[in-house]
Automatic annotation (TrEMBL), chains A, B:
InterPro entries per record: Isoprenoid_synthase_dom_sf (IPR008949), Polyprenyl_synt (IPR000092), Polyprenyl_synt_CS (IPR033749)
Record Pfam families: polyprenyl_synt (PF00348)
Similarity annotation: Belongs to the FPP/GGPP synthase family.
PANTHER family per record: ALL TRANS-POLYPRENYL-DIPHOSPHATE SYNTHASE PDSS1, GERANYLGERANYL PYROPHOSPHATE SYNTHASE
Cofactor(s) the record lists: Mg(2+)
Name of the protein described by the UniProt record: Dimethylallyltranstransferase
Keywords: Magnesium, Metal-binding, Transferase
Alphabetical GO biological process terms: isoprenoid biosynthetic process
Gene3D superfamilies reported for this sequence: Farnesyl Diphosphate Synthase (1.10.600.10)
Length: 319, 319
């Protein structure tokens, strides 16, 4: 399994992470084991665990960093399992979405099983504040996912809603991965704030980059057809700006959810013609800058640098 | 909303419960609000909160009894929301299942939202042991639901699996409702054990009674067509015994999932002819007896009596 780590120092930690994860999610119920095996071996980039580890190390190491890393990844994995269903995604991480193999039912329940393991991890840390923080992030996650669905159904598009969605479905959990380390380490409040801000802005940049690539990327690097968000009725920064500039044309395409073969290409061309693609790239860069700026409140360290590298990557990430 | 309470002393508590629940699950996201409104107003019998309150009162009252009652009900409600999908249930509590109105996606996510509120409640209690206990019960719930699905898919029926399923999907949560009160009240270990045993055996009797009524009840009292379990490939104590006595006939009906119009009636007649219905009623009575016996370790009180009444009702419950 290939994990693209930001620093080689993380390799041993991430290997332990994989072993612990495998043990944690093991069940004697065969259908659960099949799905979890899929999930564990599928791997993914483990971005959230890396954030937790780097935040911990930037503070000199905190207790229960492993449990934090696992807990944030489990919450993320659950949303993938519950989202495979939601999104009707053809592929996820290059694998056939779990639900196509075993049915929606088992997919949802396997997600619930992961949440039970998340609760277990939290109980190990002994930190009630962390339980509270996870409750808030889990709420934001569910609310923003439903909001995204609601907007797709009702078509009431706004930048405000988009901001809430990228924050709720991605940035809040990345903020938790970083801020959680500060809580576990009883870090001073300015360090805690710095890590929270870093996670939040990095997470927003991350989701905006994902959204950008979904329309402006290539199927080859993405590993899936482009235009998925348009087909699912999901708003992104690009389509929101196009709605301002070419309201009629854009609205028609969004309403028919990119059903015409040419639709996605038309949106791409409009985006380039109006300079909207560059605008969004700049907006992403703005979040990266804020994330990096937040780090300056932390003492210099290789881990702080690694967080900076991680954030700066978002400006040019292609997958 | 009519709540059939076991003692009028519970009425004010349950009214407060309903208000707190309504406030707890309120969201500014419209689609979540619609589902939660449905769930809150649909109400249900609130059996689990009643267990928590009575267990608390049998111990002279414990701190955070309300949060415990809400937490167990939220976990239950989540499984209903995730189960509507799983079971493809036509009706649930007499309402149109949530997912038929808003789609599977929102149903699953609204369940996740409830779980976030459960985490919040746990953080309020400040008791890590309770977080751990919820993690174990949530695990049992997910595992037994998947096991039920797996058995339906593979057809490997056994009494052992049935025991695990009724315990995991129902009894473990009822045990938690009772034992959780003992934990919150720092009760002596024999009282804690008594409440845990009561919840467990009561819960098993409860689920077995549900299963019994699903085949032997009437559509009028049940409020839904009988034979649903057979159509979903779910085993019950009755069909398991019929598999022993009339293997070929029963297996054929189970394999075609009661698709013939006469199938359900045939199973009912076989059950009566072989005395299997009475056997199962006796088995339920056995669990009730064990539940009631467990209570004797507790000091006598009106709440202990109310728990006894609740358990004894299972022998003749019709809805």
């Amino acid at each position: 399994m290939s994990v693209k780590v930001v620093t080689s120092d993380l390799e041993p930690l991430l290997n332990t992470f994989e072993e612990y994860l495998r043990e944690l999610v093991r069940s004697d119920v065969e259908f659960i084991r099949l799905i979890e095996d899929d999930l564990v071996t599928a791997g993914g980039k483990r971005v959230r665990p890396q954030l937790a580890f780097l935040a911990s190390r930037a503070l000199g190491g905190v207790p229960y960093e492993m449990e934090l890393a696992l807990a944030v990844e489990l919450l993320h994995s659950t949303t993938l399992l519950h989202d495979d269903l939601v999104d009707d995604a053809e592929t996820r991480r290059g694998h056939v979405a779990a639900f196509r193999k075993y049915g929606n039912a088992v997919s949802v329940l396997a997600g619930d099983y992961l949440l039970s393991r998340l609760l277990y991890l939290l109980s190990i840390t002994g930190r009630m504040e962390l339980v509270y923080m996870f409750s808030e992030v889990a709420r934001e996650l569910a609310e923003s996912e439903v909001l995204q669905f609601q907007i797709a159904a009702l078509g009431d598009y706004s930048f405000e809603a988009y901001e809430r969605i990228i924050t709720g479905k991605t940035a809040s959990l990345m903020r938790l991965a970083c801020e959680g380390a500060a809580v576990l380490g009883n870090a001073p409040s300015e360090w805690r704030q710095a890590l929270a801000d870093f996670g939040l802005f990095y997470g927003q940049a991350f989701q905006m980059r994902d959204d950008y690539l979904d329309l402006m990327g290539t199927p080859e690097t993405l590993g899936k057809p482009i235009g998925g968000d348009v087909r699912e009725g999901k708003l992104t920064a690009i389509t929101l700006r196009l709605l301002d500039i070419y309201p009629q044309e854009t609205l028609e395409i969004l309403h028919r959810r990119g059903a015409d073969p040419e639709d996605i290409e038309i949106l791409r061309k409009l985006a380039v013609a109006a300079g909207v693609d560059r605008e969004v790239v700049q907006s992403i860069q703005g979040r990266i800058d804020r994330a990096v700026a937040a780090l300056s409140a932390l003492p210099p360290s290789p881990s702080r640098e690694a967080l900076e590298v991680l954030a700066k990557r978002e400006a040019s990430r292609l997958t």
